[in-house]
Specification:
The protein is mainly beta. It has a domain of 70 residues: Copper binding periplasmic protein CusF (OB fold (Dihydrolipoamide Acetyltransferase, E2P), Beta Barrel). Helices cover 4% and strands 36% of the residues. A five-stranded mixed β-barrel has the order 1-2-3-5-4. A hairpin with a 4-residue loop joins strand 1 and strand 2. The longest helix has 4 residues. The termini are far apart. Bound molecules: copper (II) ion. The site of copper (II) ion has 6 residues, from strand 3.
Length: 107
């Protein structure tokens, strides 16, 4: 009696992708925004909280179609110098590179 054991390769494509990290916000779509790092995108929103020293600003941003983001409130990193003069409640427009704000101004 013979047993032929055929090991069939090629079935190893288990395309399971766990979200890399849980972000502080719960915007599901945003866990996928690693891709557009090269391109800058414009956004608009309202400042909810700001910490100039830490270089952090929380913005209730409107949908950003270029990135496929829906509207949400989230924290962004920014150069502290760019955040000077801003305060909570300000309506702002900003430029993103990845998830970092590289320019921001009051509207
Ligand atoms: Cu967001």
């Amino acid at each position: 009696m013979k047993f032929a054991i055929a090991l069939v390769g090629g079935l190893a494509l288990a395309a399971t992708q766990a979200p890399a990290m849980a972000q502080s916000h719960d915007h599901g779509a945003h866990s996928g925004h690693a891709a557009p790092a090269a391109a800058n995108a414009q956004g608009q929103g309202v400042v909810k909280a700001i910490d100039v020293r830490a270089g952090s600003v929380t913005i209730a941003h409107e949908p950003i179609k270029a990135l496929n983001w829906g509207a949400m409130t989230m924290a962004f990193k920014a150069d502290p110098a760019a955040l000077k003069g801003l305060s909570a409640g300000d309506k702002v427009s900003f430029t993103l590179k990845g998830q970092q704000i590289v320019a921001i101004r009051k509207q």
